[in-house]
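Quick question: what would this complex look like in 3D?
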Amino acid sequence: MFKLVKIALRNLLRYKRRTLLTSSLIAVGVTFVLVFVSSSSAFKNLMIGQITDSMLGHIQVHKQGYMASIDSLPLTLNLSQKNMEKLEKAMNSVPDIKAYSPRIKFAGMFSNFMETTNIRVNGVYPDKEEAVVPLLSGRVKQGAKVIKKGEMFIPELLAKGMDVKVGDTIVVIATNRDGSVNGKQFRVGAVVESVTGPGGRDGYMHIEDAMEMLRMDQMEVSEVAVRLDDFDKLHRVSILLETALSDQVNEAGKPVFDVRTWEDLSPFYNVSRMIEIMTFFIKLMLIAIVLISIMNVMIMAVFERIREIGTMAAIGTKPGKVLYLFLIEGFFLGLLGTLAGIVFTSAATYVLNAVEISFNFGRQTGLVLSPRLEPGQIFLISGIVIVVSILAALQPAYKASRMEPINALRHV
Amino acid sequence: MSLISAQDLTKIYVLGEQRVEALKSVNFSVEPSSFVSFVGPSGSGKTTLLNLIGCLDRPTSGSLTVAGTETSSLSRREAAEFRGKNLGFIFQDFNLMAVLTVYENVEYPLLVVQNVAAAERKDRILTLLDTVGMLDQKDKYPDQISGGQKQRVAVARALVTNPSLVLADEPTANLDSKTAFRVIDTMHKMKDELGVTFVFSTHDRKIVSEVETIYTLTDGMITGKAAGKGGSHV
């Protein structure tokens, strides 16, 4: 086998220009795909991070039916104290849940004493919310980083529209689940930057203030946002949590809890899927490039070396070894192109990171794209290219191995 | 026992609607350790006969036994294995592998075909290269040596596997007289020293004058057998 490898390598060196051109073509293809994959993956991860770490969390748990009516933020579909105890027990039994934050969500009226407008409010435990959505404090544009009782975090657009500043007094009015209206004065503790996605323009207050406003004797939670130790375990943890809660059914025999990952909650998931589909098609293009270029070169190589193949066969080389020889040549062409492609990609990625390409997404500005070469992607792309290279060489190699030595030796 | 034995050997090529009888019920035998030549004009069937003996082609009918094996029914793989074990080939155009050095060309059948151990391989190659006078050129590539030198390398390659039979198709056709004599001399020496049988297809008088037995082919039939003076080679 070593001898065949040596002969294959020398055959590639015999046609230096052709080998260089073919492997360069493969290298360019590999570079484009890897740069695209690393950039799109960086964009996707950045956006998912922004969405989940700013307001959504990795997983959310609601009472069954809440999601269908989420636009009206119904207080009648909140999780009761008893439900919460069962949910907490289930969450504690599932590994890889790092933190969770119960939220009371409601719609209300926001007044600066001169004008009134609508507002959606999250009542949260500041420490638990910070543990689940660590970018919340980073969204504070003015004011305190932590939500205090009697204070509210006001979304930036609302603050601008209502001409409200940190330290101002405002009133929030809301209807509780019995239909009675209650109002409460708050001090504006902070103005928070709006982010794209559901809940991205909500205000925040302490959960005890929310309970007081809504006249809750016992806590009734609209949703529980969950953060995981490892985002890659999202689906596994989601299933484990669903399983742990599966015995909780209502009188109609239907599940009490509704467990959803961020993918079910954010429209960005569709963008993320589109990126994955585009990546798939880009990979298909790479396969086509490798397939056509290697097949072309190997067909030419076989055609040019017919007499040599005849000689090898006449000397006693078995057809299998002739086949291997050409497959090895295809393999090395693919390998050479892949290695060169990885080197080019490393350089391109370095340059892209050095240039610090920034972009805006919705109201988020100045997001910096940081493409990173993932070893998994490198192995995947390299594997695809090398396997396709061998497959592309297969037909010409098979043809060479099946050549009748007498015909091959007669070839001029 | 004959090294080669052919009985009613026939080869017909079908080219479209045309049938060409290249060999017509040929009968002959070749003894071990002999120097034999098939001569005849172009199209007489010399190369066809050599191809059949070399298991590069199959007869249409008849029997052909080479080194005790009936070769007419061998599969492609079996034929390749048989060639690797029993036969050596010398071609008119030398057919050395351009990417291998002189040493590596001779090494190729031992390594890829016969899988001989490294120490024995080296010993056999160096001995043969020395015998054919190419030891000092062993690291050169085929495009760096002359035609005569290439053919001597081809002789070494054909003999390195210790075959019982070497088939040479017009081995001197591309060589000048002086070089041709040197190559023939080398082959004769190998025959004497190693007991290898050489079978030529040629119309080169230089070879014909050196062989022990001359078969004349005309229109696919053996029309003559004569003894040459090759047996008295000095």
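Answer marked as accepted. The mean pLDDT of chain A is 89.
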